[in-house]
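re the bet — no i am not wrong, look at it urself. input seq straight from the record:
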Amino acid sequence: MWDTYMAEEDGYFQFHLYVCAAFLVKWSDQLMKMNFQEILMFLQALPTKDWTEKDIELLLSEAFIWQSLFRGSKAHLRASSASSISFGRSFGPPG
Protein backbone atom coordinates (compact mmCIF):
# COMPACT_ATOMS: atom_id res chain seq x y z
CA MET A 1 0.00 0.00 0.00
CA TRP A 2 2.75 2.45 0.93
CA ASP A 3 4.52 1.77 -2.36
CA THR A 4 1.42 2.99 -4.17
CA TYR A 5 1.30 6.14 -2.06
CA MET A 6 4.97 6.90 -2.64
CA ALA A 7 4.75 6.23 -6.37
CA GLU A 8 2.06 8.89 -6.78
CA GLU A 9 3.27 12.01 -8.53
CA ASP A 10 1.37 14.27 -6.12
CA GLY A 11 2.54 12.30 -3.12
CA TYR A 12 0.77 11.03 -0.08
CA PHE A 13 -1.73 13.80 0.61
CA GLN A 14 -3.36 14.01 -2.80
CA PHE A 15 -3.85 10.28 -3.25
CA HIS A 16 -4.91 9.74 0.36
CA LEU A 17 -8.00 11.88 -0.21
CA TYR A 18 -9.22 9.43 -2.84
CA VAL A 19 -8.35 6.39 -0.71
CA CYS A 20 -10.55 7.86 2.02
CA ALA A 21 -13.34 8.41 -0.51
CA ALA A 22 -13.04 4.78 -1.67
CA PHE A 23 -13.31 3.62 1.97
CA LEU A 24 -16.42 5.73 2.53
CA VAL A 25 -18.08 4.49 -0.65
CA LYS A 26 -17.25 0.87 0.23
CA TRP A 27 -19.16 1.13 3.51
CA SER A 28 -21.65 3.84 2.55
CA ASP A 29 -24.70 1.56 2.87
CA GLN A 30 -23.77 0.72 6.46
CA LEU A 31 -22.70 4.26 7.33
CA MET A 32 -25.99 5.75 6.13
CA LYS A 33 -27.85 3.68 8.74
CA MET A 34 -25.67 4.86 11.65
CA ASN A 35 -25.85 7.92 13.85
CA PHE A 36 -22.86 10.22 14.22
CA GLN A 37 -21.31 8.46 17.20
CA GLU A 38 -21.67 5.05 15.56
CA ILE A 39 -20.01 6.37 12.41
CA LEU A 40 -17.05 7.68 14.40
CA MET A 41 -16.65 4.39 16.25
CA PHE A 42 -16.91 2.43 12.99
CA LEU A 43 -14.32 4.58 11.22
CA GLN A 44 -11.91 4.25 14.14
CA ALA A 45 -12.00 0.47 13.89
CA LEU A 46 -12.69 -0.42 10.27
CA PRO A 47 -13.49 -4.11 9.73
CA THR A 48 -10.37 -4.84 7.68
CA LYS A 49 -8.63 -7.46 9.83
CA ASP A 50 -9.61 -10.24 7.41
CA TRP A 51 -8.65 -8.31 4.29
CA THR A 52 -6.29 -9.90 1.83
CA GLU A 53 -3.84 -8.30 -0.55
CA LYS A 54 -6.55 -8.50 -3.21
CA ASP A 55 -8.91 -6.35 -1.08
CA ILE A 56 -6.24 -3.70 -0.67
CA GLU A 57 -5.47 -3.77 -4.39
CA LEU A 58 -9.16 -3.28 -5.17
CA LEU A 59 -9.44 -0.33 -2.78
CA LEU A 60 -6.33 1.31 -4.23
CA SER A 61 -7.60 0.70 -7.77
CA GLU A 62 -10.89 2.40 -6.95
CA ALA A 63 -9.02 5.31 -5.37
CA PHE A 64 -6.89 5.64 -8.51
CA ILE A 65 -10.02 5.70 -10.69
CA TRP A 66 -11.57 8.41 -8.50
CA GLN A 67 -8.37 10.42 -8.69
CA SER A 68 -8.24 10.04 -12.48
CA LEU A 69 -11.85 11.21 -12.77
CA PHE A 70 -11.79 14.11 -10.32
CA ARG A 71 -8.24 15.42 -9.74
CA GLY A 72 -8.20 19.13 -10.43
CA SER A 73 -11.95 19.28 -10.97
CA LYS A 74 -13.83 21.84 -8.92
CA ALA A 75 -17.26 20.78 -10.16
CA HIS A 76 -17.48 17.76 -7.86
CA LEU A 77 -17.20 20.03 -4.83
CA ARG A 78 -20.35 22.03 -5.60
CA ALA A 79 -23.28 20.93 -3.49
CA SER A 80 -25.80 21.90 -6.16
CA SER A 81 -24.41 19.61 -8.84
CA ALA A 82 -25.54 16.00 -8.75
CA SER A 83 -23.62 13.58 -10.89
CA SER A 84 -23.73 9.84 -11.32
CA ILE A 85 -20.55 7.91 -11.91
CA SER A 86 -19.83 4.35 -12.95
CA PHE A 87 -19.70 3.06 -9.38
CA GLY A 88 -23.48 3.17 -9.29
CA ARG A 89 -23.58 5.92 -6.68
CA SER A 90 -25.33 9.24 -7.04
CA PHE A 91 -23.78 12.27 -5.42
CA GLY A 92 -25.33 15.58 -4.63
CA PRO A 93 -28.27 16.82 -2.60
CA PRO A 94 -31.24 14.52 -2.14
CA GLY A 95 -33.84 15.16 -4.77
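see?? The longest helix spans residues 53-70. told u. also The beta strands are 83-84, 90-91. so pay up
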